[in-house]
Design brief:
It contains 6 helices and 24 strands. The chain has 408 residues and is an alpha+beta fold. The chain folds into 2 domains: 196 residues, Oxidoreductase, molybdopterin-binding domain (Sulfite Oxidase, Chain A, domain 2, Alpha-Beta Complex); 121 residues, Immunoglobulin-like. The strands form 6 sheets. A 5-stranded mixed β-sheet has the order 5-4-13-8-9. Strands 6, 7, 10, 11 and 12 form a 5-stranded antiparallel β-sheet that branches. Strands 19-18-22-23-24 form a 5-stranded antiparallel β-sheet, with no helix packed on it. Strand 8 and strand 9 form a beta hairpin. The longest helix is centred in the first third of the chain and has 32 residues.
């Protein structure tokens, strides 16, 4: 056997490959063992001042003692509303909903085309988009199907977790459309996403020119993949489905395109047999998040009832709380800031006497629209609708302190 340089190089290459394979195999084995046997966390020190803390990290983590997570449900996941303390939902806990999975998009290759009834069609890179003047707004988002399918069952997260509120940063779509030069006769836009479903929705031009964002930032950092990275069209106050994620194309047109998501889906069959279509705005809604189903009061005494209220039509002006199943109502305090088309946190001081009670909240927005009881919604819409469910939610507090969903 020859032992020249070429043979030595082959030997070294094979050795490196073998070593890498052994290391990979060992790491895979350790990973498998770790998956089978969860690591045991040491207890926190009795006196943290006597122990050196951990070093700084490249990306922050929450405390290991905090365990609130989203609940995955196929193509969606639910925000833990019961664990929220203010009005901003952390990006990692913002609800998600998609129709063909979350695409993996390289922002350097992503393009957004503006075309149709415009004088100057545009093809924008992400760098191009970020050169426009930016705006930052705090807005809620709610899936139009939120709440309906869990009527009378589940926790506040399980029944109503398809809603969140975040700070969004991006470019006003109207600015980009004005640069493209919208032609006379145009009255709608059609937006298309880069996902495998090619999610497509029609939006009236008046709304697109007003407050719609091309959002690339969320809560101070890049928008997350499940929220539309690298850019989504964000339509404030309207049903979540219309805020097309991973947006790649916006066509200016003279009529709605009657896409799948606005004909066979996201319409409501009324008692007359006709279907409501283009029910864009999300109606005023409030939820008591504490105490709510799945929680337990630790005996009679003082508690602060707390929750969230929002409206797609503007700011919340009033939240009322009932501790007797809706027979009487009293005003709750609204926590600042009170912003349009955003969550408003409300609080109400309550002394529980240990008896069985039913807790409710209802909100009124700046236009005077008030959250209705369930029977009023059913009377108006019948039983064959699936979207825009904003009925008053009831939580029953039992004598033992356990709370359950009491929405009939």
């Amino acid at each position: 056997m020859k032992s020249g340089p070429s043979n030595r190089r082959r030997f070294l290459k094979s050795g490196v490959g073998l070593g890498a394979a052994l290391v990979a195999g060992a790491e895979a084995g350790l990973a498998a063992d770790d998956a089978k046997t969860p690591a045991v966390q040491p207890p926190a020190p009795d006196d943290p001042t006597k122990v050196q803390g951990r070093r700084a990290s490249a990306y922050g983590e929450r405390s290991r003692f905090e365990g609130a997570v989203r609940i995955p449900q196929g193509q969606s996941s639910l925000t833990p509303l019961q664990a929220m303390t203010g009005i901003i939902t952390p990006s990692s806990l913002h609800f998600e909903r998609h129709h063909a999975g979350v695409p993996d998009i390289d922002p350097r290759r992503h393009r957004l085309m503006i075309h149709g009834m415009v004088d100057r069609p545009l093809v924008l890179t992400m760098d191009d988009l970020k050169r426009y003047p930016s705006v930052t707004r705090i807005y809620f988002m709610e899936c139009s199907g939120n709440g309906f399918r869990k009527r009378g069952e589940g926790t506040v997260q399980e029944a109503h977790g398809l809603t969140s509120c975040a700070e969004w940063t991006g470019v006003n779509l109207g600015l980009v459309l004005r640069e493209a030069g919208v032609q006379a006769g145009a009255s709608w836009i059609v937006a298309e996403g880069s996902d495998a479903a090619k999610m497509t929705r029609s939006v009236p031009l008046a709304k697109a020119m007003n407050d719609v964002l091309l959002a690339y930032g969320q809560n101070g950092e890049a928008i997350r993949p499940e929220q539309g990275y690298p850019v989504r069209m964000f339509v404030p106050g309207w049903e979540g489905n219309i805020s097309v994620k991973w947006v790649r194309r916006i066509k200016v047109v003279d009529a709605p395109y009657q896409t799948r998501e606005e004909t066979s889906k996201y319409t409501d069959l009324m008692p007359t047999g006709k279907a409501r279509q283009f029910t864009f705005e999300m109606d005023p809604k409030s939820l008591i998040t504490f105490p709510s189903a799945g929680q337990k009061l630790q005996g009679p005494g003082f508690y602060e009832i707390s929750g969230l209220a929002w409206s797609g039509r503007g700011a919340i002006r009033r939240v009322e709380v009932s501790t007797d199943g809706g027979r009487t109502w009293k005003d709750a305090a609204l926590q600042s800031p009170v912003l349009p088309i955003a969550y408003t946190r409300f609080r109400y001081a309550w002394k529980w006497d240990g008896s069985e009670v039913v807790l409710q909240s209802r909100c009124t927005d700046e236009h005077g629209d008030t959250q209705p009881p369930l029977e009023a919604l059913v009377k108006a819409r019948g039983e064959n609708w699936n979207y825009h469910f904003n009925a008053i939610q009831s939580w029953k507090v039992n004598k033992d302190g356990n709370v359950e969903n009491a929405l009939a």
